[in-house]
Each structure stands twice: as C-alpha cells, then as structure tokens.
Automatic annotation (TrEMBL):
Residues 1-252 form the Deacetylase sirtuin-type domain. NAD(+) binds at Q102, N103, V104, D105, G194, T195, S196, N220, P221, V222, A238. It holds the Pfam family SIR2. It comes from Intrasporangium calvum. Belongs to the sirtuin family. Class III subfamily. It catalyses: N(6)-succinyl-L-lysyl-[protein] + NAD(+) + H2O = 2''-O-succinyl-ADP-D-ribose + nicotinamide + L-lysyl-[protein]; N(6)-acetyl-L-lysyl-[protein] + NAD(+) + H2O = 2''-O-acetyl-ADP-D-ribose + nicotinamide + L-lysyl-[protein]. InterPro entries: DHS-like_NAD/FAD-binding_dom, NAD-dep_sirtuin_deacylases, Sirtuin, Sirtuin_cat_small_dom_sf, Sirtuin_class_III, Ssirtuin_cat_dom. This is NAD-dependent protein deacylase. The active site is at H120. The keyword Transferase applies. Coiled coil: none annotated. It is found in: Cytoplasm.
Length: 256
C-alpha cells in the first residue's frame, strides 16, 4: 500500500495529530455503519428514527433493544489494524495523537488509544433518564429475534435507565465538545476517517481545522460532505490506510 506523498509529508511533519473518526472506522471490525443498509431487524429504520428522545419516549423498549443489539455486537468484535496503528502512533517520535470519535463503541480504547474524546457519548455510559445517575447494574437480554425489552429501573428514583449516547436534538457533552475544538485548533494534521460528514456539529470540525491552518486529510472509500474541505482525499479504508501511514511515518514501511 503506497501512502500518498503529500499525506506522508504532512504526517511526518506534524507535532499534533487529530483523528476524527466515524462509523466507517468500526466497519472493518464488523460493526455496521449508520447509513449503510442496516442489517436484520433494524433494516427499515434509520438512526434518525431510533436515536432520538422522541423515539425513546414513544417506545423505550424498542429503542433499548436496538442499542442492546449494537452493544452486544460491539462486545463480540475486535479492534482492527487501523485502531491498533493509531494507538501505536500516539506519542512516537514526539508526536501527539488525539482521537475525537463520533462512535459510541470502545474499539479505540481497546486497541490502546488513551487520548479519546467521545462526542456522541459511549455505549457503556448507561444512566437514569430522570436523575441522570450512572447505572452500573445488570442489563436485560434482548429475547432471541425480539425487538423490544423493557429498560431497567433506576435504584434511586425508579425512572427508566437509558443509553449514555447523544441523541439527535440533544446537546453534545460540553466538556467533550470543548476539548474536541481545542485539539482541532491546535492540530497540525487532521485525519477525517470513516464519516459521512452529515451530522453537525461534529461534521464542522474539519472546517475549524482548515481555518486554523491544519492540513486536512480525508480517509474514506467514497466522496462525502467533507471531501471539499479536505486538502487531500485518500480513497482507501481505515484498516488499510492507517497501518500503512503509521508504518511509513515511523520509517518501517514503504514511502510513496
Ligand atoms: P455514517 O454511516 O453516516 O458514515 C460512515 C462513513 O464511513 C461513510 O462515509 C462510508 O463511506 C465510510 N466508510 C464505510 N466503510 C469504511 C471503511 N472501511 N473505512 C473508512 N470509511 C468507511 O456514520 P457517521 O458519519 O459516523 O450520531 O455518522 C455520524 C453520526 O450519525 C453518528 O455518530 C450517529 C449517527 O446517527 C448519533 O447517533 C447522534
């Protein structure tokens, strides 16, 4: 795999690298993206119909089953070579690498990345929908082939336990968003990996980076809403491009 020369040059020169990832970063681990055809039970639903406070209030059992299905899927898959490459790159030759992810899975952390900012929350962050206390109790199993399961109740106030993810229309965690903006503004290089660039404000970060003077590189097999913001577009997948880039940066792999 040959790394495009301008991408490699920018990666070698960067002191602060920011990697903005979306569902495409998890695709080669086996987790379906949001806007590819959803598999099985959920094929006819879009995230916009499921990941909203309205959907939750309308049918908590149905929305919970969808999240538990994704939660179960993530628990069975492994980080791929792209996740591992990012973790390996961090803090080598004095380069600092921060991952800002829209994903709610923990694949970056399981690969060894330590500087990870979750813009849309995390599957593990279950909490009470009313008093917001974190919930660490048992989670129900989705019945085989079922698509509904009643949420557990908060031990403190008795309200329903909800997924710790950001739904459409909800604010991003303020501290996560501020850190993402700060890191983006400080970056020399921003890699945008596996996102369609449809959901704001996350999708606005590449423009923030470009305005702040960073080199913006998109790693995605197809054109996206962000492609026009990138200085360089690398039409490759995450699990192929990232290991090749990190090997080339550390001098272990083929240059262009
Ligand atoms: P999408 O499903 O919208 O986009 C996934 C992107 O990954 C697409 O551009 C694909 O071309 C690309 N892709 C697929 N396979 C890839 C691979 N192997 N390597 C690299 N890229 C690949 O997912 P997101 O952009 O992450 O928000 O969606 C953003 C948000 O919309 C999510 O965080 C979620 C969703 O609704 C909330 O739930 C609030």
């Amino acid at each position: 795999m040959t790394v495009p020369e301008p991408v490699l040059t920018a990666a070698r020169a960067a002191r602060h690298v920011l990697v903005l990832t979306g569902a495409g970063m998890s695709a080669e681990s086996g987790v379906p993206t949001f806007r590819d055809a959803q598999s099985g039970l959920w094929a006819q639903y879009s995230p916009e119909e499921l990941a909203t406070p309205q959907a939750w209030r309308r049918d908590r059992a149905f929305v919970l089953a969808w999240y538990l299905w994704r939660f179960g899927l993530v628990a069975t898959v492994e980080p791929h070579a792209g996740h591992v490459a990012l973790a390996r790159w961090a803090d080598r030759n004095g380069q600092h690498v921060t991952v800002v992810t829209q994903n709610v899975d923990d694949l970056h952390e399981r690969a060894g990345s330590t500087a990870v900012v979750h813009l849309h929350g995390a599957l593990s962050g279950w909490r009470c929908e009313a008093c917001a206390r974190p919930y660490r109790g048992a989670l129900p199993n989705v019945p085989e082939g079922g698509d509904r399961v009643d949420p557990p109740r908060c031990p403190t106030c008795g309200a329903a336990i909800r997924p710790g993810v950001v739904w459409f229309g909800e604010p991003l965690p303020a501290d996560a968003w501020q850190e993402a903006v700060d890191r983006t503004e400080a970056a020399d290089l921003v890699l945008v990996v596996g996102t369609s660039g449809i959901v704001h404000p996350a999708a606005g970060l590449p423009s923030v980076a470009r305005s702040a003077g960073a080199v913006v590189v998109e790693v995605n097999p197809v054109e996206t809403e962000i492609s026009h913001v990138a200085h360089h577009t690398w039409r490759e997948t995450a699990a192929v491009a990232l290991p090749a880039l990190v090997d080339a940066v550390s001098g272990h792999g083929p240059a262009a």
